[in-house]
Amino acid sequence: MRKLTTRWAAAVALALPLFIAPAGPAHAGDAEERSEIAVLFIKNYSSGEYAKLDAWYTKALREDARMPSGVYRANRMVRSIASGFGGASPPPPCAKEPCPRVNDAFWVEHQQRAQAWLKQNPQSTLAAMTLASAYSKQAWAHRGGGYANTVRDEDMKKFQELNQQALRTLFASAEYGRKDPNWWSELLTYAQYGQASRQDYAKLAQDAIAAFPRNHDVYFTISQSLLPQWGGSYKAIADLAAQAVENTKAEQGQTFYARIYWNVYYGLNHQGAAVFTRPDVDWPRIRVGFEDLVKRYPDNYNLNSYARMACVAAQDKKTTAEVLQRIGQDVVPDAWEGRNEYVRCKSWSQGNAS
Amino acid sequence: MRRPSLAVATALLLYLGMAGTGLAQPTFRDYMGAYQLLERQAFSQVESLYAAASEQPATNSSRNGAESFFSALRARSGGVGGNTPEATAAWDVARQWVQASPTSVPAAIFLGRLAVRDAPANRDWAAQERQTSEAIQALDKVKEQGRKDPMWNATYIALKTMGGATPAQTVALVKAHLPAMSEPGEMFFEEVVTALDLKSTDALPQLRELADMAVQRTAKTRGKGMHAVIYLSAFFHAPALRLAPFKPGVTDWNTMDTALTDLVSHRPSSTDLVQHAAMACVAQDRKRTTELLGRAPGTNGPEAAFWRAWGGEPFYERCKAWAFGRQVPA
After folding, report:
1. Is B242 part of a structural domain of the chain?
2. Residue A274 is nearest to which of B162, B197, B202, comparing CB atoms?
3. How close A268 comes to chain B (CA, Å)?
4. Cβ within 8 Å, pair B128-A339
5. Which of B129, B168, B200 shows the shortest C-beta gap to A337?
6. Is the Cβ–Cβ distance between B159 and B115 less than 8 Å?
7. B168 touches A: beta carbon within 8 Å
8. For B171-196, what is the mean pLDDT?
9. What is the mean pLDDT of chain A?
């Protein structure tokens, strides 16, 4: 396998800030470490030094290593896979217009690289997840990011086929993968994209929880499939959050209740920002979860995000004021939509605004 | 930096010579040259150009002269802004202009618009606050001359709301400023919608209040057209509203149908025809959908992006099949 060109690597490095943003909430307190992990993946993946990646990943997994905000380091590496691809399909060079919409050759090249890595180390779940991700990203390039009703039938078919291929890739590495929470998490993602039946998905989800009942990333992935727009419901999300707390309360108290709703908020807020004011969302319980979370992981990003959720999502004036007071001068701009939002929340919570 | 062509310079000189005579109308090309004039510190020329621009109504475009003037300045001074050398250099240009012409309304507006533009990318909130204060101060200095100018008002309101105004406070500001100013164009109301920060505030009641105020203020010239301008802008900022635009609390089809008809009759626009046809289809008004699809461009031209916002080619085909009575594809 040839090495990727310097020009390509430079382009990836330039594009990095665009693609290291997590699917769920970002953690500014962890920003430096998150960037380092992404750079580590890009550097070693592009130079073919897969053994280094496997060693780093295995160690992080074995030690259950966390970042200051409490999220797992190994999971950050998995989330960095996309940055190794440059995050998107570049426009293809072609001899005559119109050029094809998707540069399949680009994705095939990455699939071949990941296959070579997997051949070199058949026990590497990181390699299997990289290969699966290359299939799934190609699938998304065909589908596009619009609502399902905006996708042409042939593109949707291709999307499902490629995600099925991603699923098959992960199943092929099940012997080692089933010991890795991120493998389960990725499996659940592609099962959803590949349109597994609700029954099959529910069974898979319970298997994943049984395998890793204390890993929040597994719950995060399942919670995405429970969004109303994916055929789920608010009740299903509440049930999952309650189950997660039941499974983790000995070590994590009520934190998972907050973590799950915080993670799922960005999939719920398109119908209105004040999601946590709904009668089928238990804000007092989420609030207790946040209190527990900031006690166990007193990262400023966690505290700022708690204040933001209390203000924007729950419209809880008293809690917003209390948490903002605790934040004091330690405002983390990345936790807010902008200074405007922060000032509005502050002013509103102090009773200076209607 | 490219220098303006001789033809443009000649046209501008000709125009300046005829300013106020009613014989010359500046064009967008002239406005695009304004930033270069500012770089050369030809401030009075730019101020004359703005004076003429302010007299230009919106006829064939959604932008009137003053709005076009500032759109062009923005394009030439670093576009969307952020931490680019062009955007940073624009601050020096604007400050020099304000310093050289402390009573110039467009100078203060330009500085203010840079502050509004560059704020979202600036994670240094202390610096952002300083820039906002500087811009508000400049606008305050020309308040008496500026209060009639919708662009002065739009910029002032945007800067004030950046200090954490609630939607109710934003609408109250508009209510307070609207009577004194000359008739605002579409950009004024679009910018107020931006200031409402819909994604974070759920400000649908205030959006409705704003739309009612806008229609009342512009009814003589625009009919209900501004209602459409405001909701189209809201759909841009909160795209999920397009999923159910006619649910209680958002808007209603009858008002929107009239508003879009008024809007397009005031200044023809193929993209607004697309929006109109798409909304007729969402409202399941078969008669109007048939009429509008007959006039609206399809999904192959430059208007494709507007169809995509509603659901792209599959949505367009479904609407066509439904409107013209063919079986809806599965």
Report:
1. yes
2. B202
3. 11
4. yes
5. B200
6. yes
7. yes
8. 96
9. 88
Ramachandran angles phi, psi of A66, nearest 5°? -120, 160
Residue at B112 is within a domain = no
Task: Find the mean pLDDT for residues A82-86.
Answer: 87
Say whether A342 and B123 touch across the interface (CB within 8 A).
no
Question: Which ranges of chain A does DSSP label H, i.e. alpha helix?
Answer: 6-19, 31-47, 50-62, 73-79, 81-84, 104-120, 125-143, 153-172, 174-177, 181-193, 198-211, 216-225, 234-252, 255-268, 283-296, 300-308, 317-327, 339-349
How do residues A4-30 score in pLDDT, each as one tens digit?
433 333 333 333 333 333 334 444 456
Same domain, B223 and B253: yes
Burial bucket for residue A277 (CB in 10 Å: 0-12, 13-18, 19+): middle
Our CA angle for B4, B10, B11, nearest 5°, is: 95
Mean pLDDT for the stretch of residues B106-120: 96
pLDDT (0 to 100) of residue A237 = 97
| Rg of chain A on CA atoms, in Å | 21
Residues in chain A with CB shorter than 8 Å from the CB of B169 are 353-354
Distance from CA of B132 to the nearest CA of A (A): 11
**B124 assigned to some structural domain:** no
Same domain, B292 and B264: no
Q: Does the structure show a pLDDT above 70 at B35?
A: yes
Q: Does A40 touch chain B (CB under 8 A)?
A: no
For B124, what's the count of Cα atoms within 13 Å in the CB-facing half-sphere? 6
Is residue A276 predicted with pLDDT exceeding 80?
yes
Residues B202, A272: C-beta atoms closer than 8 Å = yes
Number of domains comprising chain B: 2
* pTM of the full structure: 0.81
A334, closest residue in chain B (CA to CA): B123
pLDDT given for residue A30 in this prediction? 67
Interface contact B311-A150, CB threshold 8 A: yes
Is A353 a residue whose pLDDT tops 70?
A: no
ipTM: 0.80
Q: pLDDT above 90 covers what percent of chain B?
A: 73
Q: Which of B247, B268, B289 marks a domain boundary?
A: B268
**Interchain CB contacts (distance < 8 Å): A and B:** 75
Chain B hits for A344, Cβ within 8 Å: 164-166, 197, 201
Q: Which domain holds residue B292?
A: 272-330
For residue A87, the model assigns a pLDDT of 56
Q: Which of B268, B299, B321 is the last residue of a domain?
A: B268
